[in-house]
Amino acid sequence: MISELQRLLPFFVLFFYVFFTNKGVAAQLPLIDFDRMGTVGIAGEFSGLDFANNSTFSFDSATSTLLSRSADGSLIPIASTNTGGRIITGCSLDGVFYLAGSFSSIDGMSTNNVASYNPSTGSFSNLGGGLDGQVDALHCDQLTGQIWTGGAFQFPTSMPNNNQFKGSVAIFDVKQNTWLPPPFGGLRGGSSRVQSIIPNFSGSSLYFSGSFIIDFKSNATVFNGTNNPNVPFSVGATAFSSSLVPIPLTPPSTQIEASPSTSQPGFSNISNILCPAGPDGPGNTWLARDASTALITVETFQFSTASGIRLGNTFVQNRGTTAFTAVTLPNNKPLTFNYVDPVTLRNLTCSASCPLGTNSSVLYQDFLFDGVSMDITGFQLTLTEWQGAGAGLHILQLLSSGAFASAVESINKPSCFAPVDSTVQLDGSWIQTEVPTSIAAATQPILVSNVSVGTSSANSPSITWMPYVSAPGDYDINLLIPGCLNLGDCSARTSVKVTVFPGIGLPSVTTTVRQDVQTDTTAAIYRGPVIPSLPDLQISIQMELADTPVGTGQNGQFQLIADRVQLVLISVNFSASAGSGSDGFSLTGSDSGFGFFEWVLSDKSTIDATGLIPNSTETPADALGMQLFSVLGINPSQNNSTPIVNAAATDSTGIIFVGGSFETSSGMANIAIFKDNTLSPLTSNGLNGAVTSLIVFDETLYVGGSFTDTAVSSGNGAFRGVVSYDIRNDKWMPLLAGINGDVSNLNVVNGRLDVAGNFTLVPLTPNSTDGFSTNGLASWDIQTSNWVNSGGFLNGVMTLVSNGTTPGMEYVAGSVSVVREFGSDGLIMISNGNQKNGEPTVTPLAIPLASESQTPSNSILNRRSFASLRRRQVSSAIPTLNISSPAILAGAFWANNTSSAETTIIGGQFATSSGTTASLSNLAFYDTSEAVITGPHGDQVNGTVKALKVIDNTLYVGGQFTLSAAQMNGFAIYDLGQQQWETSFQALQGPTVDVTSVTTPSFESDMVIVGGTFSSAGSLPCQAICRFDTSAKQWNQLGSGIEGQVTTVGYTSNPNLLIAAGSIKLSDGTSSNVAAFDFSNNTWSSVGNGAQIPGPVTAFAVDNGNMSSIFAAGISSDGSGPFVVFWNGHQWSKLDSSFANGTSFSQLTVVPLQNTHPANGIIEPDRVLLISGALTSSKFGNASSAVYDGRDYTPYFISSSGAGAGFISQLFNSLTTFSFAQKHFLPVGLVILISIGISTAIIFLLLLVGILWTLFSRHEPETFASKYEPGDYDDDSLHRPSSLLAHINAATRSAIIGAGLESPLSGEAKGDEARSPTANEHEQMPYTRAVDTPVDAAHGTLQNEGEDVARPAHVRYSFDGDGQGELRISSGAQVIILDDRDAAWWYARDPATGREGVIPASYLY
Questions:
Q1: For 1065-1091, how does the pLDDT look when each residue is reduced to its tens digit (9 = 90+)?
Q2: Are strands 462-466 and 509-514 parallel, antiparallel or unpaired?
Q3: I need a surface site. Which of 262, 958, 1016, 1386 has the fewest CB within 10 A?
């Protein structure tokens, strides 16, 4: 009964497995199990590669195609425009990408020049019909949800002749889904074109660049001054932040608590750090208690408009704060800060944990609130991390929004570093009163004055605020008015006249302000430049009764309210002119600007920028346009002016760069810098061609355009297309040798600079034609200063690269002919992955490869024929597989014994040079974990590498090359451990030496088989194939030899057989393009009838060592085209295929599947044949790899190179042997139930065995010892108990896995002659080892009683040895047999490691 249940158990398992698991999901791609083969690489001649099921998108280079580019660089096409359309610019807002240019449709949707794409839905939308002309610039305003557009257009197409739109600029409001005119109407003059829209560094205004003219009122002036010299400089601050006046934090109006404090004298008073009187030390520094998180609470009990905090670290006793967090009071809102890293000078953001620098040369760092200023009553600072014994601070300040002054004199406390306090002057009678605030139980002191109705402005009370202003700049000035409801005086309120005197040489501005507001109000009274007087650094603001006051008063009286004035700093950048005033401030004389315009986003006024612009909207940065107008000699009457500003960029200090197509009489060409209020050329007068794109990153300006050098040719040709500029050192820096064409767009993402344009090559040296192939899109790694392969591949002229809708991804666009998801020069690493449609995970080669220019000129095979054969054997020319360098033709893996790291070794026809690394060619070692590539020490391979083989620490290299110093030709040996070439062997000889195959049989590690085209090895005649003894470093001929050329060599499970393929004749003249060599009798023979193979074989594969399952492919000798044939053990038969002329086969290999295909007589259901090369099929078109399941051919890989279609030369993997058997995993619950059932069955089986054992013992007179005396039996049924448990274990595994239900040798055991297991059988043996007892295993040949004798043996098959007491060993290794008394399992020692354990006897010989 138990036996019957055990027989049926696998069927029950199969039923439950099919029922509970989903096997019905069909994948578009065959599910190749790459992981079972170890680490897998795909090599060939390609720059881009894709899976065949992704190639459905149709590209038309006459259109513009939008593509998404993921963080790993892979490219996915999205949609194309109409014929002749161009996508030029783009930006992202709330998960939607907005694109614009010159097109009338995209993805079949009609639109005019602008559209949106939603990646979550995959759909495009029309933005209100679009615009009536080309759009060159987009800016997505994240705060307002609006899209600013710039270009050469007039109106939205849905609003024709709407005179509110003045041209060149328009706004699309996403929420309202409508077009709006900009507040300034538009821009005209010049070419009436806007090319660029970017925000200033703080995001408070927009810079517009292009070809247009701005006219300012003739009395408009812009001034410059210097900062308060009393404010100490710190690299941790910017010109903007150091101009913000600190808010006084003095008691009793402010309460500050810090705990826990140190007990050290001179360091426990937190007030000492608010404005320290001296250097870091006692009395000027506060220290927290040792090893304690510290909390500092600052409460002002009144609302203050603040922009950030200033922190200076302490370095007393090597202590200091390294990280902190902060929240606002009273709402405990966590603060996010923007700050400048004092080391890298990068602009960074922090919130959860903000770093505080530990460089003692940095006096303080300014941390500004993210976005805008905010009204707070205080803040809490938590010092969370420290160095040394504990945390501490030397400076703590709260930064205002700019400057301020109160009407109540006692409130105007001294600000740190200020030469004077903010002050107030009163005229008339003013009374102090308190007004309630929103803070519980808190009030705000103000002044009120009563004036009789009818009093003139000149005779009314007045107040003059004189705020301390740390630095000149562009400011908004506001008057704060308490609401009348809190004071109960609404009926007495009226209007006042406020006059702002902004500073030296600037006209006063008067505004009438109504004070009859019910709630607290901030009234704008001035916008523009402010120049504080010297030496007090003050301006004045006067308030008095309005000339025509509103209201009727209360009891015949008006009540005037005086609270505070507030200055909000907008910009610190000012312009300069030829003249200079006595106060050190400069005055501009121009009243027109060209090509550059700034608009402050908070400005709510409505003007017409195509007319005369009022003073109130002019900003200091507008002086840039004024100076351009002057130095370029712009004539406003010429509307089509040639000069144009194509791009602008700004850094954290307010410096502005502009680039375009312009030149001045002084030599300034195409790019300029606006710094310290002066427009100047960059070093070497700029560049010798137009600039199209600018971007600032890490204090470096990156410039793209159509230039080749500086204006004075100082770059030696290395500045072509793209170059960088070191802002701090005013120095041009090349990006190696640039690129060989024009650049249209730049973008920085994930630490790399992406370059789009019209180019095909990244030269290795200036003006060189050798370099990295890249067609329209290239990537520069900013950290390593190298060109890198960042992922996808395309061939086109690109016009756009822009940040995408998710972090790290991008959108690119342009005229595209080919796109491949993965960009990689000749190599990818591939694993199973978990992607949809069965797509594996692909890891491209991270380093670009270049063409190799030192290939021997006398070698016709180096560039043209990868698999060419001797033409004398064919009646017509054989199509060759053309190689257009760079190409990787061979790969291997080396497990470094020293570092335990796996290195990928690649060979082919390529070159590369990275940074300080020496140039290498044709053979390289690639560290995939570090993305580092290096070459061999000493000589570089001069020619093409076609075959690689690693044995232990030795690399065998084959191909068509020379090594000058080693005098090697076509075959070389490299010691990987010693990093040197081996020279102590004879070189191959012949008119043409071309080694295409280097292999080793699994049973003999001291033997290397070399195949190809050659005539001898040294003086030994050895044509086409030769055996190399790795120990003796000697060549040996295989039998009587062969003639012709060998393209590839393989092996069967019979260790005595070797299979060679190519264009071969045996020594007796028999043509045999697939031949076998028998090591046992040292003879060659034809595999089947050679006439059944139509022509020379360029690729073949033995199915898992099965001599009765061989595939071969090549080109027919009669010119009828490519063929694929199959050997079934009796005859060759041609397999139906659709391969057409132009096909070249480079490799056939049998690969395992994750699933199965329908059974057939050609190939087993758990595997497929992978066919690689350059394939052309009448059914599926072009491909680089296809799979064959015995019935159908399915394209798998397609590839492209810079020269057109690519090809795959080979798949190579790290495991020399692997199992095709599939392991299926059942649901956990089912596994538990099956386990319980099996356990119960085992218990019953043990009980039954025990009962039978007892019964047999009673009837047998033999003793226990005599029953197991060695040599007394020849039957596997009487094993000792350990073997019995092994039988049970094997049976259990067989029941669960479904493998090994019958011994693979059981059928053979019935015959007269025993045989060794085939490779297909031996892979099942780990699951059936306890029940497999080969009849040819010797019994008791090693030990008898009292003997301790050992003998050597070799390992026929690799054994995993994962069971208890088992010995893991590799095929070909030598072991020492210690005990062979058990027929099935022998006890052995591995002399290489000293480990001991049992091994299946059938695995040894």
A1: 998 888 999 999 999 999 999 999 999
A2: unpaired
A3: 1016
Three-state DSSP state, 44: strand
248: left (phi over 0), alpha (psi -120 to 50) or beta: beta
- Inform me whether the pLDDT recorded for 1200 exceeds 60: yes
Q: Name, in order, each residue with C-beta under 8 angstroms of 1081's C-beta and a sequence gap of 6 or more.
A: none
Q: How far is CA 197 from the centre of its chain?
A: 27
Under 8 Å CB-to-CB from 376, ≥6 apart: which residues? 303, 304, 306, 328, 329
Q: Is 118 exposed, middle or buried (0-12, 13-18, 19+ CB in 10 A)?
A: middle
Separation CA 787–CA 845 (nearest Å): 13
Q: What's the N-to-C CA distance of the chain in angstroms?
A: 40
> CA angle 1000-1001-1004, nearest 5°?
100
Residue 900 Rama label (left phi>0; alpha psi -120 to 50; beta): left
DSSP per-residue codes, 508-531: PEEEEEE---SS-EEEEEEEEEEB
The pLDDT, as a whole number, for residue 801 is 96
Q: Report the alpha-carbon distance of residue 1143 to residue 1174 in Å, rounded.
A: 6
The backbone torsions φ and ψ at residue 205, rounded to the nearest 5 degrees and listed phi first, read -150, 170
Spatial separation of the C-alpha atoms in residues 1386 and 1092, rounded to whole Å:
46
What tokens appear for 209 in the block?
């660049």
Give the per-residue SS3 of 869-923. Answer: CCHHHCCCCCCCCCCCCCEEEEEEEEECCCCCCEEEEEEEEEEECCCCCCCEEEE
Give the phi and the psi of residue 1247 in degrees, each rounded to 5.
Answer: -60, -45
Scan for tokens 């100490």, then name that residue: 232
586: which 2 tokens?
């400069």
Q: State both tokens at 1405.
A: 């010989």
Helix (H, G, I), strand (E, B) or coil at 31: coil
Greatest CA separation found in the chain?
Answer: 141
H-helix segments, 224-292: none
Pairing of strands 1144-1152, 1132-1134: unpaired
pTM of the entire structure?
0.61
Phi, psi of 1388 (to 5 degrees): -140, 165
- From CA 1217, how far away is CA 1211, in angstroms rounded? 15
Contact 1042, 1024 (CB under 8 A): yes
